[in-house]
Amino acid sequence: MLGEAELGEVMKPKELKIQVNGRTLAGLEFGSAQAPVTILACHGWLDNAASFALLAPRLGDVRLIAFDLPGHGRSEWRAPGDWYAIWDYVLDLHAALDLLELDRVHLLGHSLGAGILSMLAAVLPERVGSLVMLEGLGPLTQSPAEARLQMVKALEWRLAPPKAPSLYQDLDRMVRARTFGRFPVSEAAARLLVSRGVVREEGGYCWSHDPRLLAPSVARLTEAEVKSFFEQIAQPVLVCLADGGIATPESMRRLDWLKDVRLVEIKGGHHPHLEEDTLAAVVDTIATFYRSMEKTEFREKAEICD
After folding, report:
1. Pick the CATH number of 4-142+221-292 from 3.40.50.11310, 3.40.50.1820, 3.50.50.60, 3.30.1330.10
2. What is the distance between the alpha carbons of residues 193 and 53, in angstroms, rounded to a whole number?
3. CA atoms within 13 A on the CB side of 301
4. What is the rounded average pLDDT of the residues 83-96?
5. Predicted confidence (pLDDT) per residue in 3-21, tens digit
6. How much is the pLDDT for 299?
7. Sign of the CA dihedral 263, 264, 268, 273?
8. What are the residues facing 105 on neighbouring strands?
9. Does the model's pTM come out above 0.90?
10. Residue 64: which of 33, 94, 91, 93 has the closest Cα?
């Protein structure tokens, strides 16, 4: 077992940049390319790859690749006129796997990332070994009757006059703003996310994310469509939910659609992998799941690094 100093050196992340569909996809790579296991991690809405900076070093001898989703962090925005549909993220990550020549990966997604990776697992069964959904149970949905109104809301947002980006004089103010966001986090967690989520502008700092990420979706999947994806996920699935998180009785019904699922509920908020008092529970839950899988490259490989 590695000590803190050795752990920090071995798992110090490397910046990663690739070209996907003509745009730069940036991210962080933890661990060695020679590690026996590769994990593709995907963050939540308005977060970035730094979301996994505390978790990755504690999963043992693995290579963990976490991209900033398009429009997030240090990745480029989509072209003018394009939108941010969940299925486009799936296509982006599929292309990234091909570019990196990753024939076999395990998927670990938080919130929005869990929804994206649940779809990727369903369409790439031959390349995905397992799926971890942390504080997420698949994509947001709409009923067929809501489709027209959903598109109207998106068109109204698109036609509204653009708002000037908020300019902050110092990073501490941005940290405080992120601390009290839609999903509150601690100051330490906020600093991690802000470290990849801002750009320097004349007179101060701005958020680096594309304002279009705040727009209503043009369309969403229906529950029946999500069910069709979930029923095709044959790999082992871990669902880790926090008692102060976003799960609802409606989303919990989706567990019945998964063939091989383990549910673990822990204490905490929506970002338990970024908080000091809940990180250990997340690490233990995920590492135990990896160790439990029979006949996989994880057998006796994953360990918790204190």
Report:
1. 3.40.50.1820
2. 10
3. 15
4. 97
5. 444 444 446 899 999 999 8
6. 54
7. negative
8. 128
9. yes
10. 33
Residue 273 pLDDT > 90, yes or no?
yes
Which tokens is 216 given? 């209503």
CB 15 within 8 A of CB 40: no
Domain boundaries, the chain: 4-142+221-292
- Report the 10 Å Cβ neighbour count for 68: 27
Confidence of residue 230 (pLDDT cuts 50, 70, 90): very high
pLDDT reported for residue 302: 43
Short-list 198, 185, 196, 51, CA closest to 110:
51
Tell me which amino acid residue 120 is: L
- Whole-number Å distance between alpha carbons of 48 and 178: 13
